[in-house]
Amino acid sequence: MSTIKAVGITSFGPIENLKMVDIPRPTPSERDLIVRVKAVALNPVDCKNRSGTFKLGDFEGIKVLGWDASGIVEEIGSGVQFYKPGDEVYFAGSIVRQGCNAELVAVDERITGKKPVSLSFEESACIGLTGLTAWEGLTECLGIQVPHSDKDKELNGSKSILVIGGAGGVGSIVVQIAKRVLGLKVIATASRPETVEWAKKMGADEVINHSKGLTEEFKRIGLSGVDYIYNTSDTDPIFDQFASLINPFGKIVCIVGTQKQHNIGALSVKSAGLIWELMFTKSIFGYNLESQKRILDTLADLFDKKILQTTLTRSFKSFAEIHDAHREQESGKIIGKLAISAVFS
Question: Structure pTM?
Answer without folding.
Answer: 0.95
